[in-house]
Amino acid sequence: MKELWAFHQNRISVRFEYEWHDASGQWFRTHGNEHWEFDDNGLMRRRDMSANDVPIDERDRRYRP
Prior knowledge:
The chain is mainly β. The chain has one domain (2-60): Roll (Nuclear Transport Factor 2, Chain: A). It is 0% helix and 66% strand. The protein contains no helices and 4 strands. It has strands spanning 2-8, 11-21, 27-38, 44-56. The chain has a 4-stranded antiparallel β-sheet with strand order 1-2-3-4, with no helix packed on it.
């Protein structure tokens, strides 16, 4: 899930949340914020991301295919 937080000129900020599992099968939910800045050609010139990984049980997943 990505949710638009703010945008202005060549900058965008989003809040995100996703789930994944490691090789042992432990599920995690990662959530945080990303900030993107683009140059005059539309190419990303800067990306900042801050995130937290939280262990969860498989039954507590929010996102399923």
